[in-house]
Design a protein that fits this description.
Elements: E1 2-8, E2 18-22, H1 24-27, E3 31-35, E4 41-45, E5 56-60, E6 65-70, E7 72-79, H2 83-94, E8 100-102, E9 107-109, H3 113-121, E10 125-132
Parallel strand pairs: 1-4, 2-6
Antiparallel strand pairs: 1-5, 3-4, 5-6, 7-9, 7-10, 8-9
Length: 160
């Protein structure tokens, strides 16, 4: 079994790599086992320095490289009539410190019917969907900027 022990910041030119899709729950762990699409089992024993973001590369000591991508999983999708309503929902969900993914047109969080009812009570639509989950890393975590996201991401981690 190949054991991936290193995180890579960048690849060498023309570096070959395999890919794997993992849930957010698995990408938070530094040690895990997984199976590639071709049926090969792999293991990871990585340094404990944060979540594997979608698109991250990990490597074995022998130089085998694996790109880790976010797997589609069951999520709650929040949509609204206006950007301001979406902003209000982000504020209220952020105050509850739940992992929250922000996009310009929707918010995503792991299934939680209490939170879904709260958001619906604010007048927003909540539906269950299958979508890759890449939540915000939080105001104090090390994170990479994703310029595709809406400016409301800065308001995710609001304290009273």
């Amino acid at each position: 079994m190949k054991i991936y022990t290193q995180r890579l910041e960048q690849l060498k030119p023309k570096q070959q790599f395999e890919t794997i899709e993992l849930t957010f729950d698995v990408r938070q762990k530094s040690r895990f086992r997984a199976t590639l699409k071709n049926g090969v089992d792999i293991g990871a024993d990585l340094p404990r320095n944060g979540i594997l973001r979608s698109g991250a590369y990990i490597a074995t000591a022998q130089g085998d490289v694996l790109q880790v991508n976010a797997q589609a999983e069951n999520l709650m999708q929040v949509t609204a009539q206006s950007e301001f309503d979406l902003l209000k929902a982000a504020y209220h969900l952020g105050n509850r410190h739940v992992p929250l993914m922000l996009t310009p047109t929707a918010l995503y969080f792991e299934p939680d019917h209490v939170l879904a009812e709260m958001v619906m009570g604010l007048g927003l639509r909540v539906t269950e969907t299958l979508h890759p989950f890449e939540p915000e890393s939080g105001a104090y975590a090390q994170h990479q900027h994703d310029h595709r996201l809406s400016p409301i991401k800065a308001l995710h981690h609001v304290h009273h």
